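Let's practice the habit of predicting before peeking. Look at the sequence and jot down your guess about where helices and strands might fall. Then scroll down.
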Amino acid sequence: TIRIVGIAVSLEYLLGLGLALLLDRPFRGRSFFRVLFLVPMLLTPIAVGYLWRMIFDVGRGPITGILGRIGLSPVGWITDPKVALYSIVITDVWQWTPFMFLILFAGIQAIPRDYIEAARVDGASRWQLFRHVIFPLLAPASVAAVLLRAVECFKIVDTIFIMTGGGPGRSTETMTLLGYSVGFRAFDLAYGATVAFSLFLVVLAAAMAFAMVTRKARQLRLD
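Done guessing? Here is the structure:
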């Protein structure tokens, strides 16, 4: 669970930030791409699970066909224990990067343009403008986006249930899926409740630690 959260949320933040910075610049068709990038987030996780299960299918999936055309052997995206977890990450990143993009883009739009123009007048490069103006002022939106997405990602179950069922073996079994399996399949409700409460403690500890780190970082910048 922690591996999925750590990898997926990090990639989603980086991609979402890149898209937000890209679409902050004026160009033709910008409104169209803003709407297009939000489409994956509007789909239900069940539909996304079935979609990517077909895409990753070793026998008839389009990825296997593309690899075959360029002379590469097929990959067991959801059948190989070493690869299946990263296939889940790819699916989660595809669906939820728009969430990061939406919050970060709103945060960039809320930054006073006077600060940006003043930095440009002072001769700041694009990197300096991002590092010393945009990124610090985007910190509240970044904290909110990462925290909300991380908490939601800790509860991931439906996409994994459709794509792999926690397999192969137990290589993609998350705490939520484990709690469901032992509680409603094995009818060990006490163990299932324990797993669910343990997940709550893990999420609470992660949220508190993240809040403390961001608060200290903000205090250091103010000092």
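How did you do? The mean pLDDT is 87.
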